[in-house]
């Protein structure tokens, strides 16, 4: 009996210690402060029948400069210094792959004026309408110069390609594309053992955190375990949205009965798990981020490895 009581006391003490390992991620920056990040990612998609996996890589270098410090938050100028992508091994879709490379390269040198709260959580892109108009026009010009539909190296129609670009032009998606995971935690109070519902490219998931922030340390480290948590209804909503972003309406309607049938039979399943580590400096800038995510979708395995490093800051 005494041993049982002692175990319960020890458990309660452990929970109390875990609850104390909590910190709010925020930044204390001055006008003229800046940070430049290099982010790389590699995606490997398994293919059936033992064929070689499909691989794509991406690399971005973005500089963030604080141009205004206001009582309610910051104005930050994010400039894409370099964007590299390698989608060219997508057999049968070489034209679309080159189009994506050329489209995202048009972002180089463009300034994204970010509005944040006082913790550095990104709220909006102040010049969003201007950027959307410019990027949409660039995409239209690139599409005009593509080889004829149905030719070698063409996988989808021009109309479908326009829908793909339109799906990338929402303000939320543009913020995600230029920032990646760099600003994910600002404004959040994270504690060890805390669980949070999140969404990753339309997939619902649950994060569990472990925080390390010693009093005398110059950094705060957050370790995150991510597990996909998709119900049948979640899968259905995600698949419909993905189709809506990439295909004409008549094709979507024709495919819905087949998708519903596959969902009812249990053939469509998506499982996934990942690990991430975020290290923040004392002034709030993210120092580094490393992330791996493995996803199994109906037997096709995808692995995504990402890394962000702080090249310079002030």
Write a short abstract of this structure.
The protein is of the alpha+beta class. The chain has helices spanning 2-20, 94-105, 128-144, 158-168, 171-179, 232-246, 249-265, and strands spanning 22-24, 34-45, 54-70, 73-86, 111-116, 122-125, 189-191, 195-200, 203-212, 219-228, 270-281, 286-297, 300-313.
List the helices and strands and how they pair.
Blueprint: H1 2-20, E1 22-24, E2 34-45, E3 54-70, E4 73-86, H2 94-105, E5 111-116, E6 122-125, H3 128-144, H4 158-168, H5 171-179, E7 189-191, E8 195-200, E9 203-212, E10 219-228, H6 232-246, H7 249-265, E11 270-281, E12 286-297, E13 300-313
Antiparallel strand pairs: 1-7, 2-3, 2-13, 3-4, 4-5, 5-6, 8-9, 9-10, 10-11, 11-12, 12-13
Helix pairs in contact: 3-4, 6-7
Report on the structure:
This protein has 314 residues and is of the alpha+beta class. Helices cover 32% and strands 39% of the residues. It contains seven helices and 13 strands. It has an eleven-stranded antiparallel beta sheet with strand order 6-5-4-3-2-13-12-11-10-9-8. The chain has a two-stranded antiparallel ribbon with strand order 1-7. A hairpin with a 6-residue loop joins strand 9 and strand 10 (219-228). Helix 3 packs antiparallel against helix 4 and helix 6 (232-246) runs antiparallel to helix 7. The chain is globular and about 60 Å long. 16% of the residues are buried. The model is unreliable at 1-21 (pLDDT under 50).
């Amino acid at each position: 009996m005494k041993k049982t009581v002692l175990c319960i006391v020890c458990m309660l003490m452990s929970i109390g210690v875990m609850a104390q390992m909590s910190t709010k991620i925020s930044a204390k920056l001055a006008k003229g402060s800046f940070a430049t990040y290099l982010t790389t990612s590699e995606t490997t998609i398994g293919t059936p029948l033992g064929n070689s996996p499909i691989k794509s890589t991406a690399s971005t270098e973005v500089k963030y400069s604080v141009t205004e410090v206001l009582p309610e938050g910051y104005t930050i100028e994010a400039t894409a210094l370099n964007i590299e992508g390698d989608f060219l091994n997508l057999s049968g879709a070489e034209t679309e792959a080159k189009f994506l490379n050329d489209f995202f390269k048009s972002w180089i040198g463009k300034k994204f004026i970010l509005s944040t709260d006082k913790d550095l959580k990104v709220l909006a892109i102040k010049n969003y309408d201007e950027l959307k108009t410019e990027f949409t026009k660039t995409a239209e010009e690139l599409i005009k110069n593509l080889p004829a539909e149905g030719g070698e190296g063409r996988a989808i129609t021009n109309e479908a390609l326009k829908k793909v670009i339109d799906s990338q032009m929402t303000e939320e998606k543009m913020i995600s594309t230029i920032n990646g995971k760099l600003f994910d935690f600002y404004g959040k109070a994270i504690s060890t053992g805390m669980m949070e519902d999140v969404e990753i490219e339309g997939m619902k998931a649950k994060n569990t955190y472990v925080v390390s922030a010693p009093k005398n340390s110059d950094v705060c480290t957050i370790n995150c375990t991510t597990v996909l948590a998709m119900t049948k209804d979640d899968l259905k909503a995600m698949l419909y949205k993905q189709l809506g972003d990439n295909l004409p309406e008549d094709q979507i309607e024709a495919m819905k009965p087949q998708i519903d049938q596959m969902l009812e039979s249990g053939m469509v399943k998506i499982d996934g798990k990942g690990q991430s580590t975020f290290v923040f400096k004392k002034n709030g800038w993210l120092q580094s981020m490393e992330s791996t995510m493995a996803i199994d979708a109906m037997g096709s395995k995808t692995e995504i490895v990402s890394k962000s490093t702080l090249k310079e800051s002030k």
